[in-house]
């Protein structure tokens, strides 16, 4: 490329797109000079930084060309006299002038030859435009960076033994040739130092690490990384230096321009544009997208800027940190608790910046927002099934609030509540329980037994108890929560409606349908008054009421409610929203219960398609849709169509939630039911066994779901003619349902019927 640009005549500059001294501009120019020397029979002349004209004149005298006439009094005249002597003595052939490390082209231009028989090669940190034809020199590709390290270290066993560490080292150095050469030479003379140890030292000491701050004598470029960047820093005006410091506080990722403006609210818009343009023009900041709306710093420029915040920019450091923290907290607040793929697409680029504010800038976040970044990062992680990452953020948030505010602060209670909620979603009920308990105790102590936050904690603990099948304990907490919200917020407050809905769901689970019904109806009436007829909250209420009617066998009453819920969600949230998928799924389930399989089928398929599209192919909700569609196919006798869906559902649950999650147990149970329907009893048996073991372990021996598994396993033994083994399982199942759900619950009736059928057999 450089050969083509020079061959076209005129002037060409080499600039660094990544903005760095040390990217290899001078080295590239030297390689060109060495490789194409024969193409310049009239000679080459290399001008180093410093007194370039004085050097020209002295070398002309050494060559025997004489000295410029005394009448030539300016440097420009004397430079042009030397060029003229060069032309007169070597009139034929091309000649090359190399001007290394130029600053401002308009200042250099008068000192350059104008005769077309000259070609001029410039190296610069500035991004010059016409008439200069520019070649941007970027950092190395990762593979070339690794090869450079290997060239410098020779045939070193460490590079074969520590390949991941070598790649991480190259990445930390930002693939910058100067940094790679310094570190490579450092390691070459220290055979006992591992790559991991070198990386550890860099992470601790940053640009001050010896591997980056000692320049071996044999190196051609006698600058450290710090010194190379310092040359560019000194050319910046004070506001531009402050701007570089502010940018270094963001994550190592492209930074949207509007986010920079938000972080610097005191800056005039055009002043900020000028500052960014200056940093781009000096190659300290790059424009990674063609639109130019984002800005990026090289990893080591970011380290350099952070160092300046501790020294020259120390007085401005705290205001800059507060501004960046506030801007990123505002971004964090836009993260919804239900994360769709659209949300991920919109916010994925912000994650590295949110991670920085959560890890490094919490001291500069206003007190009542300090937990926001970690909480929202956890939501983003949880929405992508990255459960361990979500747990890390929520655990860090708890540690932060305990350390900063103390173990009994309300924000600590919120952190405990959030971590407990994650554990509940993961099926880790025993770990969630003490956290919910601590959260409740703090709110009762600090805010009072009748505070709305206390009611929230009671409600969440009740949900956990309900999930664990501890219905009587859940009931008292739901009732307390409801009383508080009615008393403190009013009988018609949305929080009261939430409590009514939760209590109704519990009654429904207990088979106390007649008690659940007026609660659902009250919740719906409150929300209609608050939100109107077509709010998504109304759709949620309608859905809950429809589920109750379905459980009561009142299918015709459930049907229009599901229809209205679906219509609201399609209208208000969109045809492809996850909540719409839930409505489709539930309506399909009702059609399936009514034997209207052909109507259920397209709805289950639509629900599955939405969840795969919006939540991802491996989300637990997607697994639920797969499981339900498989169940429908089983009911239709389409076993071969059901089998791969059921197997996919199980694989997702095991991967996303773990092998011992209650949802995994449900999937195992349903796959076993399918095998049983197909007459593949030996394959069904271990799946029922696994499902039963999980439910006994995670939910308890007397949970209704455990009873369901016992009932199904008994049914398999009955089908296999193993009546003596079926009998005690049916007996246990019946005892649990009578104890937990009551003598008149439909599941209890099913169990009695199954036991009677076994006796007949």
From TrEMBL:
PROSITE patterns from the UniProt entry: TPR (PS50005), TPR_REGION (PS50293)
Ranges: TPR repeats: 413-446, 455-488, 497-530, 539-572, 581-614, 665-698, 707-740
InterPro entries hit by this protein: P-loop_NTPase (IPR027417), TPR-like_helical_dom_sf (IPR011990), TPR_rpt (IPR019734)
Top-rank lineage group of the source organism: Bacteria
A Gene Ontology molecular function term of the record: ADP binding
This protein's UniProt keywords: Repeat, TPR repeat
PANTHER family documented for this protein: NEPHROCYSTIN-3, TETRATRICOPEPTIDE REPEAT PROTEIN (AFU_ORTHOLOGUE AFUA_6G03870)
Protein's name according to its UniProt entry: Uncharacterized protein
